[in-house]
Each structure stands twice: as C-alpha cells, then as structure tokens.
Amino acid sequence: MLRYVLALTFLFLHVVAEAVTATIIVESEAYCMYATGQLCVEIEGGVGPYTIAWSTGSTAGCIGPLAAGDYSVTVTDFNSELATDQVTLQSSEYPQVGGTWLPGCPEGGSPGGPGGPPYRLFDGTSIYNHGLEPFTVNGSAAQYFPIDANWGFLHFDVWANSGAQVQYSIVDGNGCASTLTTTVPQPPQWLQPQVLEVDGSCSGGANGRIRAFVPEEPSGWAAAFKLYGPGGHVEWSSPVGNVDQAGYGDREFLALGLPAGTYHLVQTVSWDHYSVVPELQQFWPPQYLEEQCPDTLASIVVPDLGYTCGTLNGTAFVDANENCVRNGGEPVMTSTVIEVQPGNFYTLINAQGQYSINLPYGDYTVNTVDPNFQEHCGVSTTPFSLSAVETVVTRNLADTSLTGLDMAVYAACGAARPGFQVTYSITLANLTGVLAGTGNFSLTYDPSLIYLNANPAPSIVSGNTLIWNTNSIGAFQHRSANVTFQVPPDINLLGTVLSSTVSGEVAAAEEDLLNNSLTHQVTVTGAYDPNDKLATTSTRASDARYFIGQDEWIDYTIRFQNTGTDTAFFVVITDTLPSNLDPSTFHPGSSSHTHTVSMSGHGTLKWIFPNIMLPDSNINEPLSHGFASFRIRPHLPLLPGAEITNIANIYFDFNPPVITEPSVLVAEYSTGVLERTNEQGQLHLLPNPATDHLRITSEGTILNILVIAADGREVLLAAPNTQSSLIDVSGLSAGPYVVLSTLNDGTLQRGRFIKQ
User: Fold this and answer.
1) Domain edge (last residue) among 401, 436, 467
2) What is the pLDDT of residues 690-747, one digit of tens each?
3) In the chain, how long is the greatest CA-to-CA distance?
4) Whether 313 and 379 share a structural domain
5) Is residue 353 part of a domain?
6) How far is CA 311 from the centre of its chain?
7) Do 58 and 32 form a contact (C-beta atoms < 8 A)?
8) Which residues, in sequence order, are CB contacts of 35 under 8 Å at separation 6+?
9) Best exposed site among 26, 34, 210, 290 by fewest CB in 10 Å?
C-alpha cells in the first residue's frame, strides 16, 4: 500500500512541474583575441537533478576561459525534458581603467608641473585588462614588472599638472588596445606635526618620552611616519597598509623608553601595493616604495634630566570586590592626583587609569589623593626603592570608596564684552566609581544675555533656562555642553556682573548635594588682555580676597585668544602652581575645547589642545577664543596678608609663550561674606558733566579707578587708595564714559559721567 501512495505522489509532481528552461549568462567578456570569456547557465523549472552539456563538451555549470565564438548548452532534467540556449561571445574592447598614483617628490616644483618631477602611475596588469607584454603607452615603450605568468605591474611617468584629466592608449604585444583614463591628483603635503609633550630622560637611562600629533594628510595620500633616534634607528613608526595608515586620519603617537638626544619625525608617502604585494620588493628596494619622498617634519630634543633616576608607573582602579586585583567591569580612576612622598612629587592618572613619573633614586611611598577613596591593599603604606638595580617599579593602586555617589557641576566662560559673543562651558561630573544612572543638568543664564546656540542642543528651553537630559553616567564620567550667547552692544553694561546658575541631578541617590549647583559670575569688560588668568573663590565674595575660614577652594579660568594672522593648529597651556596651593587637591573643570591635562614634578600642570584649529580673530572673532579651568585648595593654614599669586604660559603652535598677568588673591579674615554691589549711588562723580577734573568719592577706600570709553577702550587708570580722588579728564574726547572702582574689601562699584 505504501508503494502505491508514493507512485501517485511522483505522478502528481510530474504532471504539475513547470517546463525546464536554460539561459546562458555572460560572466566575463572575451577581450580582443584572448580567451578571457566565461559563460554560466541559469536553470529554472523542471525536476532536478539536471544534466548539462555544453557545445565545448563541458558538463559544468560555468565554462571558461573562452575566446570569441558561438556557444550552446543543453539541459536535461530528471524527467528527460530538454532545454537549450545559445550565445555568440563577441570580441570586446578592454574597459577603461584607472591606475594607482605614486608622487614625484615635490621639492623643486609641483609634481608633474613645470620644474617639478613627474608623477608615477602604476597599474595592475593581466590579460584581463591590458593584454600581454610588451606594452607601449601612447606609442612609447613602458616598463612592465611581471609578478607571475598571469599578471604584473605597468609603470610609466606622467607629466601633467594636478587636476588634469589624462588618457593613455595602451597597446600590448599582439596589437590589442586598452585605454587608461584618470585625473592627476593633488601633490602630497608635508604635514605640520604638533609636539604635545616631551619628558626628559634620566642620566644614563632610557625613560624619556615624546607625544606628538600629526593631522590628516588633506590631499588623500597614504602618509606614513617614523621617529628616528640619535643613532638612526627607528623608535616608532606608523603601521603599514592602507587600513591603519597615519595620513588617512588624524594620528597621535607616544614613543616611550627614549634615551636623551635628538629625534627626527619623518613623513613618507607610501604606495599601498607595497604591503599588499611583497613580490614587488624584487623590483624596487624598500626605500623606493615604503619611503617615497621622505621629509623631516620636526627635530625633537629629549633633554637629559641631569641626575640618575628611575620610573614609577601603575594603574589605579576601584576595587569593588576588594580582592586587590582589577577584575572585568571595575572602573579605572581618571584625572586623579597621584602623590609620591617624600619630596612632594605629583602626577595625574590618565583616561586609561594609568600613571607614570620619573623620580630620583631613593625610597618612596605612593598613593592616590582623593577624599572619596582609600587604597586598601597596603600598597600605599609599603615603601619601594628606585635604584640602579631596579630602575622601573610598578605599583597598582586598588581603591575602595569612602562615600556613596557624589556628583558635581562646574562652569567657566570666556570674556564678556558689549557687542561680542561669549561661550559658557558647563559640566556635570561623577566624582566616584558608582554608577549614577540617567539625569539632567541645566543653565539658568543672566537675562542680559541673548541665547544663540549650544552644542549639544538642550533638551528643553524654558525662558532663560536650558536643560540637557543625559543618558546613564558611569563611574568617573561626565557630561558637558558649550553654550554661546550674544552680549548686547550696550556700553552701559560695562562693569555689570552677569550671574548665571548651573545645577545637575541624577536618578541615583547622592550623599552630598552641596556641589550639585553653583552660581557663576563674570564682569562685562571693554578692552582687555585676551590671554589672562582669573581666580574666583568658593564664596564668590571677591576676585581679590581669599577669606580665611570662609573660602574653601579657588576656581581658576585661563582664557586665551588667537590674535595672530593665521590659524593656530594646537595650543598648550602650562601652569606651575605656587607653593601655597596644594597640588593634591587639583580637579579639572570645564573647558572650551577637547584636551588632555597632566601634572608633573611638584605641581606643574599642562593642558594640551591638539588640532584645535583656532582661527585668528581677524577671520572669525567668536571662534578665536578658548579657555580651560580647574579647582584647587590652598595649603592650610594661610596667614593674613599671604598672597596666592599664579600665572599661566600659553603656547600657540611653536611660538614663544604668552604669559598672563599674575592672578593675585590676598588672604584675609572677614566677619561675613561680602557681596559685590553695582549701585551707582555709592560712587559719587562731581561735576557731571565734567570739563577738566572729576572728583570720585566712595564710602570705602578706593584701591583703583578705571575709566572706559564708549568704544570699550581703557583710557585712564589710577590707584588712589583713598575715599576721594580728583582725576584729570581734560585730555579725554567729548562723550560718555564709565568709571569702575574696586574698594579695599573687593567691592566693585560703577558710575557714569559725560565729558564736555
């Protein structure tokens, strides 16, 4: 019975199956006189399996290589149904192809152009695209380098200016012609390296380092780089191959373990096929292909530190399971101060949780300095030695949290001037190794400001409040926004304090909410030094006084502007902290551009803004500004009258540093927190209008007086140190003026008068 059912099923299939069809598909053309064609049969319908019979005798689904001619195929299905097809394979012309360029070195003129070397053009060649050797190009013999019996490389020089479209007729040894059409590329450009950091090497040792940044080669060439040491050996090189070539994108590199001496960063223009086809080395020496057009971009000196020393390094992390080993998922600590004693040596943990510092030979202890964490595995209390016997010591620091989640907000801005734009940067930071979850942070800006834009755009705009919703904020992570405002072009704003509020909150519970909000203030000024350093104490009571027992910390903002005549490719800021500031309490704040910050020695800070591309003020004034900020505490106790004086050095590219005017805070006792006032009634100006002299009187002692013209220029400065002062205004032009005075308690007062 079972056999009968199967027979009926087969009969049913035989009846309903569609008729079998066969179609020949041309997979490859038959070029010129050569057997380069390939045909395949496509079968539909019928009942398999199928039997294939080509007119060539082949029974395969595809046949080749084939010369031009007539071809047919017969397909027979399982039911003996037949299907046939035939095709005439024509003799085809070679398709137009484009080659691979290798530049002539650009010294002495543009490659291919007048006075310059030719470009070199390479093209992979086989019977399938150009035919068989020997070849002529536009009637002249061309070089051909066979790799094996089937293919090789055609090579000839091109004399044409960049951007020109060129076409070459290639004829092989049997008279078969092909065409090569391509556009001559722009010549490669020698890049401007940005030497970001150089650390010296111990005498007789090899623990110096060089960190540099090389931007993308803009013309699209595969630029490669090597760092040659004093003995001519390569200390660092970019990977070979077009997947990870420096020059296909921006590249930052770090060369470690360097002895003192002079190093040379060399750019070359590679030909990608060199790494893909090693056989080409038999035709050209490596320096011809791998190091085409070498050019020294920079010479970098690693200084001798002048004393014998060794290197301390390690990783700092949050040891959640307290097993003294970093396991997967345990976060590393970042931007945290590492303190080495004795000697008061400091460094910062980088974004990967790593630190490194060179130290004179001796016995030391090392620890992370963060009030929220404590090293718990005994590493911080166990001394170690650096000596000629042990020049490198590794100490990994496993920390546990002393507190729960703690978030903090930071804010900084550039100069606020009437009629100009000002950029604020605000940050919500997770100071702990605890997951914060989702949250938001906001900026309620001074009503005098006109909101223009923000990056990223705020989630909510409500009146003069901007709110950013955030995704989950992990351990030691932060979220930031840069906001641009227009300061109205009103001369009467000079001396006005713009007050804004920054706040933030997250889903997870916090133990300390005091640092989740702050008030940021900036005074509207006229003409000013575009490169300066500002200090603001935690009470915000004064820009000139640090009130003992009331102020806890100081916020510093270093502002800079490119006032040159060309783009600044990179900016470096250095700040050697004075002895009465405690490096162990340093914490980075908000900044205008992407950067890295480091600390070395006894408290030398360095901010690096690689590839900042800061336009000059003549081209784009709003975008010519930048700033960096940080928070720090003074060493206690502070005595009354002590001055906290700090400056910064600002480097634009390779130019000498711009040194800011000193930021000076004087420590004093105070019975209460002072608030600055701008009420004109407290500053008396007589006569008004004035002709020759103007008497300025206040209820307090006036430390200094600044007179500002309507166009923002500072036209007169005096330091009377009295309650009343008579100033000569006879030399001023007629018109309105603003008077700014600072009292001995830090109060800022403002008044206006007319000069007749």
Assistant:
1) 401
2) 888 888 888 888 888 888 776 666 788 888 888 888 889 888 888 778 788 888 777 7
3) 130
4) yes
5) yes
6) 28
7) no
8) 64, 65, 66, 67
9) 26
Token pair belonging to 17: 């199956």
Q: From CA 507, how far away is CA 440, in angstroms rounded?
A: 9
State how far the Cα of 350 lies from the Cα of 335, in Å rounded to an integer. 6
- Does 534 share its domain with 548? yes
Per-residue pLDDT at 1 exceeds 90: no
pTM: 0.70
- CA distances from residue 232 to 225, 236, 287, 295 in whole angstroms, order as listed: 14, 12, 15, 15
- Whether residue 393 sits in one domain with residue 463: no
Same domain, 664 and 744: no
- Mark whether 120 and 223 lie in a shared domain: no
| Cα separations in angstroms, 428 against 348, 403, 443, 502, 574 | 20, 18, 11, 9, 25
> Is 189 a member of any domain?
no
CA distance 94 to 104: 29
3-state secondary structure of 502: strand
Q: What is the CATH number of the domain that holds 698?
A: 2.60.40.1930
Name the CA dihedral angle for 164, 170, 176, 181, rounded to a multiple of 10 degrees.
-20
Look-up of token digits 């595995």 = 377
**Distance of alpha carbon 531 from alpha carbon 558, whole angstroms:** 7
pLDDT in tens, 440-464: 999 999 999 999 999 999 999 999 9
Question: Do 658 and 543 share a structural domain?
Answer: yes
Whether residues 538 and 671 fall in one domain: yes
Dihedral angle, C-alpha 254, 259, 264, 268, nearest 10 °: -50
**Residue 44 contacts residue 20 (beta carbons within 8 Å):** yes
Same domain, 461 and 542: no
Could you give the CA distance from residue 719 to residue 702 in angstroms, rounded to a whole number? 8
Which domain does 555 fall in, by range? 529-675
Strand order in the sheet with 100-102: 100-102, 119-126, 151-158, 143-146
* Residues near 7 by beta carbon (within 8 Å), at least 6 away in sequence: none
Domain boundary among 272, 302, 332: 302
How far is it, in rounded angstroms, from Cα 569 to Cα 268? 21
